[in-house]
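User: What would this chain look like folded?
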Amino acid sequence: MGIAELNEREKQIIIHATIILYGDASSEALSNIVAMDVASHWNEPKASEHIKQNHYLVQFNITGVYAPSLMPQDVYENDEPLNNYFRVEEYAEGNISFVDGIGSNTGYFKLDNLLNNSTTAAHEFGHTIGLEHPQQLDIRGSGTPGIMYPRGTIVDPHFQYDPAAAPATNGGTINPFTRKVLQKDIDDLHLNKLSFNKNGFAMLGAFSSVWHERHLQ
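Assistant: Here's the prediction, encoded as structure tokens.
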């Protein structure tokens, strides 16, 4: 979830969002790492959008916040569309990170999914601003996989965990570290269809407002 700002003077569309981390594995350092990771991935393509025959550069302004004292009511009662709340723990049921729906503002991160320049945070952020997994999950011959392709996608060998593995076997599916934000991912946001108010702002996503308890092994 976030706010899109249409800057007519600079010919930019700026997506503002705040990622707020809580939970036993969260920290101030991690909140900064996650925010930088999301911003770097989504700004990498230097993508553009056309609105009313004008060309706009799409930029992502992502802030990370560590909230060790966050309470459930802070999430339930939040009415600030910038805020996205994620619990971070070393253990997660199903061994995956997730959000609470497409266009949501809450979710749960497994700690090791976020480390070493992983694309997990950038992928989950895509869900919060309205993007789903693509329907076609065998993309051999299509080149670099976009950020929204899920684990298990069949890709060209050099995008697999193990380039020597047969497709769809152990090691023969997408290595998430090879995903990148592409122009198509920006196109799929349909920023040109947003209803910007008189001040040039529009909301992306919606309030899911789910507080997550720590998963127990």
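The chain has a mean pLDDT of 96. If you want, I can go into more detail on any region.
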